């Protein structure tokens, strides 16, 4: 991801959250999300890259950003260090979901992980996000039994961890 991609990636991320997480996350949290605030956070990541973290963007024929994925070392303490990558984010412009962009990005993520010596990829998905869970299951991910919850405006929202061997 380059500086030029940041606004488009942030727009995809914010619109994606508002579409996918309506009814799962508190409305107050979603309403508080802005492209501008998200873009400020993305700029920090671009100007201060994190070791081993890769941001991949998908562009259409006209060069417009239509999807984004972020991959890096697994952050879970219960995994074997060095063997597991983690998919931190995978977003596609909501109007283009189902067009193959997410699958193409995920294939690029897997190739990148393999190229860096990882033998598996883990990810966290909100328990209530059934479309995302179905997508990951169709491409070979399975829940591995790990659960966690994050707080969104005072509401605890559970997540499941999924895993796929490469």
- Summarize the amount of helix as a percent range: 25-40%
Structural class: alpha+beta
The arrangement of helices and strands along the chain is HHHEEEHEHEE
Main sheet characteristics? 6 strands, mixed
Widest β-sheet, arrangement of strands:
1-2-3-4-6-5
Beta fraction: 25-35%
Cα(first) to Cα(last) distance is 24 Å
The quaternary organization reads as: single chain
Catalogue the unreliable spans: none
Describe the SSE topology.
Blueprint: H1 6-20, H2 27-32, H3 35-47, E1 54-59, E2 65-73, E3 84-92, H4 101-115, E4 120-126, H5 130-138, E5 142-152, E6 155-165
Parallel strand pairs: 3-4
Antiparallel strand pairs: 1-2, 2-3, 4-6, 5-6
Helix pairs in contact: 1-3
What can be said about this structure in brief?
The chain is α+β, with helices and mostly antiparallel strands. It is built from five helices and six strands, in the order H-H-H-E-E-E-H-E-H-E-E.
What does this 3D model show about the protein?
The chain starts with 5 loop residues before the first helix and ends with a strand. The protein is α+β, with helices and mostly antiparallel strands and 166 residues long. Strands 1-2-3-4-6-5 form a six-stranded mixed sheet. It is built from five helices and six strands. Helix 1 crosses helix 3 (35-47).
